[in-house]
Amino acid sequence: MDIKKLISEMTLEEKASLLSGLDFWHTKPVERLGIPSVMVSDGPHGLRKQSDQADHLGVNESIKAVCMPTACATAASFDRDMLRQIGEAVGDACQHEKVAVDLGPAVNIKRSPLCGRNFEYFSEDPYLAAELSTSLIKGIQSRNIGVSVKHFAANSQEHRRMSSDSVVDERTLREIYYPAFESAVKDGKAWTVMCSYNRLNGEYASQHRGLLTDLLRGEWGFDGYVVSDWGAVSDRVKGVHAGLDLEMPASGGTNDQRVVEAVRAGELDEKDVDLAVERILTVHKRYWDNAKPDTPWDMEAQHELARQLAAECMVLLKNEDGVLPIAQDETVAVIGRFAKVPRYQGGGSSHINSFKVESLLDALEGNEKITYAQGYDIVTEEPDEALIAEAVEAAKKADKAVIVAGLPDSFESEGYDRTHMRMPACQVALIERVAAVNPNTIVVLYNGSPVEMPWIGCVKAVVEGYLGGQAVGGATKLVLWGDVNPCGRLPESFPIKLEHNPSYLTYGGEGDTAIYSEGVFVGYRYYDRKCMDVLFPFGYGLSYTSYEYSNLTVSADSIRDTDTLNVTVDVTNTGKLPGKEVMQLYVGDCESSVFRPVRELKGFEKVALQPGETKTVSFTLGKRAFAYWNAALHDWHVESGAFTIEIGRSSRDIALSKTINVESTVEVPAHFTVNSIFADFMKSPKAMAVLAPIVEEMAHGMGMGGDSETAQSAISSEMVEAMVRYMPLRSVASFSGGKLGYKELSALVDMINNA
Ligand code: BGC
Fold first, then answer.
1. Which atom of ligand 1 is nearest to the CA of 349?
2. Which run of H or of E encompasses 154?
3. For the chain, how far is it from start to end, CA to CA, in angstroms?
4. To the nearest whole number, what is the mean pLDDT of the chain?
5. Is there a cis peptide before residue 262, judged by omega within 30 degrees of 0?
6. What are 203's strand-pairing partners?
7. Ligand 1, residues 349, 351, 352, 414: which to mutate, most atoms within 8 A of Cβ?
8. Fewer Cβ in 10 A, N or C end of the chain?
């Protein structure tokens, strides 16, 4: 298929028709020229292919498929290979079902625990989100199925999602909200990007040329097409010019017509239309050339995989007295409706019609040491005395009590945000009452986002299972009974209470204006800088074995910002069970002219270790690991000075640390005026070469010469220097006795700026 030639043969109407969908899930064909339609479908954690009565909210049934662990869970794996495997499984399903583009992954940053879609997102940390989602992308695209990385950009709330304006400064966008998209494009080579519903700094993402063309294509080299989120188009003509290639779903022909009219009226260049068509067809051709509908889709095998993976996502948050794992001969009261009917995915467009679901009770079938009590109702929030009494009786008789709790569907979903971080009152009451009669109470949580845990002190163990996909029950059994050693780590901080979250004061916004006022201080970047207690920190998670870290080495004590630094560290399994440890590397800038977090995750590796085994883990750090986004340079910048290299068990538990020096090779150009202050001139050697005599004279002029000999005048000269620091150069005119006026000072400034 010669795409350019085909385009040259198309009428304007045919070209415009290709810029919007045929229906909910298909693009339009051009039968006259033999261009077929393609199908796209949702699928961040499994295929949601709808046939009839399509909708984008997951309301109507889709075909049977496999629900893998959702992103909130897989992010806790800290395991790139796992994400790749999930991607391959989803890619196979898409090939089998003739779906050309999978609408995922969703990589927005978890700014607040309240976002209704957090279960679909990876992390509060941009590096973790980028690394894991890019692995997923590579897995899917290895099957010659395109991804649509979404929702670009700064779409971290559901509240007023189709109208809200995310007001975010440039540095924060670059450091926090863009990296996962940047990595998807540069490293993952994503075929398509889905723009978000919201506006970004005043302009709808769907018609934001700075975002869709200058940044995405110009800077990052994106060569695929941009598709709108479903119904995200406001001004279609502006969108085409901005770089929004495909509008989904169908616009009923109205926007196609507007595009045609705009071209005819000279408001839109036909070349913009041609370019969009070319991008869409180029991507679809990759699929057409590699379609393999005979690809087998072994759902049973994928279910087994989903179980194993979900087990390795679970995070052991507490395990007093080694109450876990449960021994085979111990009696256990399994309590909670979620043990029978698990919550394993979120609501909305990612909702999978699972071909089967495995609950904890299913997985324990035939185990005679088990009793079950429902404990709570998922519809009513208030405690049900009869259900609690039954659970308490069961718990009294058992060696251990396992309560499976979490958040009901209605608490978190696409389309709206949570209003609080609490669990249902009936579950809190149940946990407290059961823990009062059974000292070995274990809580398993199925939820898509952090919850407050006022009951944490009453129970011995807590396992965070997140939304672990359709085999979550089997996975829970594997972890509780010790067949899998827990190895997940929190991909987000759990604040003690919602009010502690950095976005608390402005989250959701006033009307449509959502100002991201905490800037780069999202999640642990904020809690660590403020030395605040958290319930559980970012990166945290326990194991049934123990690990020791040793021999942290760096390849150099001093590097330039153009060099790379190699870091190695040894990790030993010092316990009795095999396990997997997540090695986390954080970098911190010891002194900086801009506000920076104490530490930021810049490397992680998951390592499998037999008891007694030691492995050496290596990391390579490039410029980005040390840099912040300098808005004046419009580039990543490293300030010269000392940086910490830390190996931590979490952002709050640093085991080993070294300090190295990084030399900048970039001079930040300063543009001085007569209103610039001396403190800034003093940082610039070329400015001081010109101004040193004047500074000296200023000090004299104020009666405080640098050559004073008494202690009294020495103190005074420091005071004068401190005062001079914040004076603008123009004040010299007032203190030089008329020797240097505004004109002379302007000439000096020109001399410095041109030096
Ligand atoms: C969601 C997207 C989804 C699309 C199609 C939208 O409402 O925001 O994530 O891909 O619907 O279902």
1. 12
2. none
3. 57
4. 95
5. no
6. 200
7. 349
8. C
Chain centroid to CA 28: 33
Residues 6+ apart with CB under 8 A from 418: 113, 114, 115, 116, 411, 412, 449
Residue tagged 């839109």 (tokens): 268
The ligand 1 atom at the shortest distance from the C-alpha of residue 151 is 9
- The C-alpha atoms of residue 653 and residue 57 are separated, in whole angstroms, by 41
Q: DSSP class of residue 41?
A: E
Q: How far apart are the C-alpha atoms of 139 and 298, rounded to whole Å?
A: 17
Burial 298-308 (b: 16+ CB within 10 A, else e): ebeebbebbbe
- To test the pocket of ligand 1, the residue of 62, 103, 159 to mutate (highest count of ligand atoms within 8 Å of its CB) is 103
- 229 Cβ closer than 6 Å to some ligand 1 atom: yes
CA–CA dist 40, 25 (Å, integer)? 5
Contact status, residue 578 vs residue 545, Cβ threshold 8 Å? yes
Measured CA to CA, the distance from residue 355 to residue 307 in angstroms comes to 14
C-alpha–C-alpha distance, residues 747 and 613, integer Å: 69
CA distance 150 to 102: 11
What number does the ligand 1 atom closest to the CA of 161 have? 8
Give the pLDDT confidence of 601-646 residue by residue, as tens digits.
999 999 999 999 999 999 999 999 999 999 999 999 999 999 999 9
Element (H, E) at 397: helix 385-397
Q: Is the CB of 150 under 6 A from ligand 1?
A: yes
Which pLDDT tens digit goes with each residue over 89-127? 999 999 999 999 999 999 999 999 999 999 999 999 999
The Cα–Cα gap between 755 and 227 comes to 48
Is residue 42 lining ligand 1, measured as CB closer than 6 Å?
A: yes
Task: Give me the numbers of helices (H) and strands (E) for the chain, helices first please.
Answer: 23, 27
Rounded CA-CA distance 88/86 in Å is: 5
Q: If you measure from the C-alpha of residue 612 to the centroid of ligand 1, how many angstroms do you get, rounded to a whole number? A: 48
As a whole number, mean pLDDT of residues 231-240 equals 98
Q: Would the CB of 102 count as within 6 Å of ligand 1?
A: no
Classify strands 400-406 and 332-335 as parallel, antiparallel or unpaired: parallel
Tell which residue, 189, 47, 194, has the closest CA to residue 106.
Answer: 194
Q: Select from 94, 587, 161, 142 the least CA-distant residue to 302.
A: 94
What is the distance in A from the centroid of ligand 1 to the CA of 197? 10
Q: Is the CB of 25 under 6 A from ligand 1?
A: no
Distance from Cα 56 to the centre of ligand 1, integer Å: 6
Tell me if 315 sits within 8 A of 444, measured CB to CB. no
How far does residue 149's CA lie from ligand 1's centre (Å)?
11
CB of 103 shorter than 6 A to ligand 1 = yes
Compute the distance from residue 184 Cα to the ligand 1 centre, in Å: 18
Higher-confidence position of 738 and 585: 585
Q: 586 and 599 in contact (C-beta within 8 Å)?
A: yes
